[in-house]
Design brief:
This protein starts with a helix and ends in an 8-residue tail after the last helix. The longest helix has 99 residues. A two-stranded antiparallel sheet has the order 1-2. Helix 1 runs antiparallel to helix 2. 72% of the residues lie in helices and 4% in strands. The chain contains 2 helices and 2 strands; from the N terminus they run H-E-E-H. The protein is mostly helical. The chain folds into 2 domains: 134 residues; 34 residues, no CATH class.
Amino acid sequence: MNGYFITGIAAGLLGIAIGAGGAYTYENRELLAEQAAHAKDNEQHTSDLNAISKAALDAEQRAIDAHNEAEAAISAADAQITKEKDAHETDNRNYRAALAAGTERVRVAVTNCSAAGGNDATGTPAAAGVGNGAAAYADLDRAVAERVFRVAGDDDNEISKVKALQAYVCAIRPATPGCK
């Protein structure tokens, strides 16, 4: 073998080694730059995710606070309405019992009526002064008065239900028209 041939092969191998080393160094720099950019992207994504997580946590806390406030408002409204309802029921029951016992009377103003017996012996109305437009008063029958107050109690119960519903809506949605 010729000396030039061996020198040529050695030079070729040296060229390949230098080329491979240069390529390795170039690619290694590119890889390091890409890794640095990737690390910067990861840091930005981590920062973004932390901000999103914090915003979600804050929103959740506000929702919990709003829920607790609404729950407290509903509880207070329920206690108030229950107290009023119980007081109304007690008053109504006591008044109906007094009507039934005859210790209370319901008086109504009347301007035109006649006595239950009709006319007196002369044929004129038996209730003098009534029927001529002058004001007079009459007592309702006990049973009628008691029924009237039973109906009024039922109406009061329905009004209490509407008030409770309105208080609930105002506690849940304070911006609803009619809420304080």
